Amino acid sequence: MNKIILMSALLSASVLTSQALAHHDGTDHDGHHANHDMHAKSDRAPSTEKGTENLRIEDCWIRLLPNVAPSGGFFVLHNQDKSEPVVLKGIETESFGMSMLHETSEKNGMSAMAMVPDVTVEPGQSLSFKPGSYHAMLEKPVADLKVGQQITVHFELGTGKKMPVQCTLKSPGARKFSDQ
Ligand SMILES: [Cu+2]
Question: In angstroms, what is the span from residue 173 Cα to ligand 1's centroid?
């Protein structure tokens, strides 16, 4: 009886360890050695601003990782309005079953990531979603996604508008838009 309990304790410990290692190697969806707490809740409330739709979205790409690991989404937001902020509420695409906005940040010298309810770009400013910073996390890919392919991603704004953008799927080694 005791032996069985010990065995199952060891088994679950090893499962936890391999998951933790998978999250800490260089292949995570952020492309950054982040301490992944995927379920970390944001410590701020969602923005109540609608903001402007005068937004240009550039250089959208997704680092396509094998099914078991979430893929990272990166792009640049240019707020072209001189007086209103842009509020990005989230992204969605038929190519992935689930996606959310994340932020990687330094806390006590450690890199950690957390969900954010939205991201605000101030009037006239640009904001890059890139490894080690803001990024999207995409899970549950549909079958047959391939590196080099373009997919349509809808960017949902504070106004409720969903802007379609073509995003390029790139290899796990990609770190920026110009990489393959
Ligand atoms: Cu993340």
Answer: 16
Compute the 3-state secondary structure of the chain and give helix, strand, coil in percent, each to the nearest 5.
Answer: 15, 45, 45
Separation of CA 112 and ligand 1 centre (Å): 9
Distance (Å) from CA 85 to ligand 1 centroid: 24
Q: Which residue has the tokens 């799927």?
A: 169
Domain ranges of the chain: 1-180
Q: Per-residue confidence at 75, pLDDT binned at 50, 70, 90?
A: very high
Tokens of 157: 């704004």
Please tell me the distance from the alpha carbon of residue 121 to that of residue 128, in angstroms, as a whole number. 10
CB 100 within 8 A of CB 118: no
CB 90 within 8 A of CB 100: yes
Ligand 1 midpoint to CA 113 (Å) = 6
**Spacing, Cα 140 to ligand 1 middle (Å):** 15
How many whole angstroms from 3 Cα to the centroid of ligand 1?
Answer: 39
Please give the distance, rounded to the nearest whole angstrom, from the Cα atom of residue 135 to the centre of ligand 1.
6
According to the model, what pLDDT value does residue 64 have? 93
Which pLDDT score, from 0 to 100, does residue 31 have?
Answer: 72
The CATH class for the domain spanning 1-180 reads: mainly beta
pLDDT tens-digit series, residues 4-48: 555 444 444 434 333 333 332 334 788 765 555 555 666 789 999
